[in-house]
Amino acid sequence: MTKIIEVNGVSKSYGGVKANTDISIEVEKGGITGLIGPNGSGKTTLFNSIVGYHPIDSGSIKFEGQEISKKPVQDIARLGLLRTFQQTRIYGDMNCVENMLISMPHRKMTIREAFTTNTRADHDRAEHLLDFVGLYEKRFLRSGSLSFGQQKLLEFAMALMNEPTVLLLDEPTAGINPTLINGLIDRLKRANSEFGITLFIIEHNMRVIMNMADRIYCLAHGELLAAGSPTEIQGDQRVVDAYLGAH
Amino acid sequence: MTILRPIFYLALLAFIIAAPFIAPDFRTQLATLWIFIILSMTWDMTGGQMGYNSLGNILFYGAGMYIAAVVGISIAYNVGEYTNAAGGGIYKFTDTQYFLGMALGLIAAGVLCAGIAWVLGYLLFGLRGPYFAIGTLGAAIAAGELVSNWEWVGGGQGIALPVFPGDDYENAKLFFYYLFAVTGVVLFIFLRWFYTTRFAAAINAIRDDEEKAEAMGLHTLRYKLITWSIAAFFVGIAGGISGYQLIHFEPLETAFQTINLGIFMVVCVLLGGKGTLWGPIIGAILFHVVKEVTWNYLLGWQWVALGALIVITVVYFQDGLMGWLARVKPEWFGERVTEKPALAGEPAE
Ligand SMILES: Nc1ncnc2c1ncn2[C@@H]1O[C@H](COP(=O)(O)OP(=O)(O)OP(=O)(O)O)[C@@H](O)[C@H]1O
Ligand SMILES: [Mg+2]
User: Fold this and answer.
1) Strand A32-36 to strand A215-220: parallel, antiparallel, or no bridges (unpaired)?
2) Whole-prediction pTM
């Protein structure tokens, strides 16, 4: 197994707030890695650092062996390292199919290809993936009119449309109807096993992440508290304390 | 619908060709209407479709005018000497020199304006929202000032081009009308296709959420530069034609007229409806008619009336005519209601 993301000694602060202090983690190619931690422990900050959303204060971030910590967001996305947003971001005035078609991987497209119309195959793929996340029936609805949970699913489908190598998901089950969470876990696992996408997932729902991840990192107060397999993490007293202390 | 469409376009084309003969007294106004249409359609490429409201597109109109004129003169004479002598009267142009100069001038105007947009875009596309608008306005004002202090191109006096060959000025009016019309029709056909491409979907994504578009790996800067350059290409050509039509033009009031045409094109688009193919065209026609009527019947008050129209459009009618129609008659705009009604519930497993 190779390390596809290597974060080494990364720190990031906002003014006086130390959101991340000396964080080192590794994401294995082809696997599902989890990131947990109480509210405000710096999980989203770490994602933002990895995808180039803001400059980091110190440390190194490598993707497929290449240093990316100085690269802008778009360049990193074009390497095949994609993220979804905790607050979800979709193009609200467009319908679901249009959202999907816009998410086609432009990094694999020449300018000449950009100046063509979408093919039947593109439409089929868009509809297939909407079906995959359970939004087929709503495909021609204005996406802004969907519920928060449905928008999360749409954003997930858009990310799949983009054919990433690694997908960073920021709380994919937040706002999803609890009766549908098992279905979503199943789809995330399939995205990993069938489409071969490496997943790195921030998750608050313990049951969900224990069920999916091969390896889990736990943050608290901006520092790495523990790392290990789901069973190791579950049995780690520091993790239990951090969660109990925070809730 | 499918059979009606070609008939509609053929009828429209016939009307465009016949218009200067249907209303022979209005040939110049009709030509001006085409300027409004071309400037509105191109403004909407960035303003409506890409979410970048430029107040400086008039820069390409002015630059196009000067580039076409300078190139047109230079094939026969030394430009500095020509402008120094202020003029057309002394320097004679043969028909070939006139038309060849104009043709080369228009091509140069289009190509160089596209290049100017590319360079300017590098500097200005880092700005968002109102900052981009003010930045582009500043660029247009600066360009006007720069040119009016540049003696080689006539300074504040501007340039006097040779007059159209022949004695019958009606021929010139027809010629310029058709030259604008061809440019406008080509632009329309181009945009009708352009707005169906993946590229256009990408600039719509930039408009709706540029940060998301970046996070999805779209080449946002490249797409913005290309879009603005295409717009500038057509604006530059329109400006070039205007210069030859006007014969004499000067930098601040005619070429880089930021407060007149520079603002009017924005109003046209808002009036007709941003981000649509037809909105800018309909808006340009409406605006031009209102403008001509107020100029003729409300003399002395025309600016007040026009100002009131602008304020009312911006405050109460932001979606424009097409936006209003889309709300009242969504089915005309291809909006489909899906098989199942939109229930508020979650998706089925
Ligand atoms: N843009 C910002 N400016 C200032 N402070 C910020 C900013 N973003 C995050 N922070 C602070 O950094 C710390 C870590 O925030 P972060 O969003 O990374 O936490 P998180 O683990 O994702 O929390 P949650 O579970 O609530 O999403 C918090 O104290 C937060 O208030
Ligand atoms: Mg977070």
Assistant:
1) parallel
2) 0.91
The secondary element (H helix, E strand) that includes residue B267 is helix B261-272
Residues A172 and A241 in one domain: yes
The DSSP bridge partners found for residue A223 are A220
> Are A196 and A244 contained in the same domain?
yes
Residue located via tokens 């770490």: A46
Which residues of chain A fall short of a pLDDT of 70?
1, 244-247
For residue A90, the distance in angstroms to the closest alpha carbon of chain B comes to: 7
Q: What ipTM does this complex have? A: 0.91
- The verdict on A63 and A174 lying in the same domain is yes
Report yes or no: B37 and B284 within 8 Å, Cβ to Cβ: yes
**Cβ-contact A168, A83 below 8 angstroms:** yes
Which residues of B fall within a CB distance of 8 Å from A115? Answer: 197-199
> A3 is in which domain, residue-wise?
1-80+164-247
Asked if B342's CB is within 8 angstroms of A176's CB, the reply is no
Question: What is the count of residue pairs from A and B with beta carbons less than 8 Å apart?
Answer: 110
Q: Does residue A141 sit in the same domain as residue A154? A: yes
Question: Which residue has the least CA distance to atom 3 on ligand 1?
Answer: A14
Q: Are residues A57 and A99 in the same domain?
A: no
Q: What is the pLDDT of residues B196-253, one digit of tens each?
A: 999 999 999 999 999 999 999 999 999 999 999 999 999 999 999 999 999 999 999 9
Same domain, A145 and A202: no
